[in-house]
Specification:
Length: about 190
């Protein structure tokens, strides 16, 4: 049985260099329960998996995403986004704090991981694709490549004997768009797994 997770990471090397102004703390709607049949189920999600964040308030939909409490959904950071809202990876926790008290610490910060997606019974002939849009910076601070800031996509392949995270984007031959516009990237799943 093959189950995949999608994970996006933002990996700044120097947290103190990320922002020069104090961010507004992220807030969650009080008293709102977003429990659905899909979030209560341990079964992998069926295809198609789709989310443009347009039906979400400030946090990713927990029936589709896990490990997402530090990613902020908003309509004010993206410039000319392809949908109403975007997921912002700002390098801060949900309370607006840095991930470490030490400004020189390096490592992954904001993570957005999909719930398991069922791909059992699919083969290369099924032509399964992952499509996503991304924009560096937007109306926030641009990531600094010289500081190690990056956006990566990994797949988790869960087999009967193995569980492996594999970075599938960007690869060495991929050109990462840093021109400030939203760019669509499309991956053929079985080419990348």
């Amino acid at each position: 049985m093959r189950i995949f997770f999608l994970t996006f990471f933002l990996c700044p090397t120097l947290l103190w260099a990320q922002f020069t102004v104090e961010p507004l703390p992220k807030t969650k709607a009080v008293g709102k329960v977003r429990s659905t049949v899909r979030s209560q189920s341990e079964n992998p999600l069926p295809l198609p998996f789709w989310d443009d964040f347009s039906f979400t308030d400030t946090s990713p939909n927990d029936s589709l995403w896990i490990d997402s409490e530090n990613v902020r959904i908003n309509a004010d950071v993206g410039i000319d986004p392809p949908s109403i809202n975007v997921a912002s990876f700002d390098g801060l926790t949900a309370t607006g704090e840095g991930y470490s008290a030490s400004p020189g610490d390096e490592g992954p910060t904001d993570v957005l991981t999909s719930c398991p997606i069922a791909l059992e019974g699919l083969s290369i002939g099924n032509n399964v694709y992952l499509s996503f849009f991304y924009q560096y910076g937007g109306s926030g601070e641009n990531p600094e490549q010289s500081q190690g800031d990056s956006l990566i996509l990994e797949f988790l392949s869960v087999g009967t004997d193995t569980t492996v995270w594999k970075q599938v984007w960007p690869l060495e031959n991929d050109i990462v768009n840093r021109n400030g516009y939203f760019e669509q990237h499309i991956l053929r799943l079985y080419d990348e797994t």
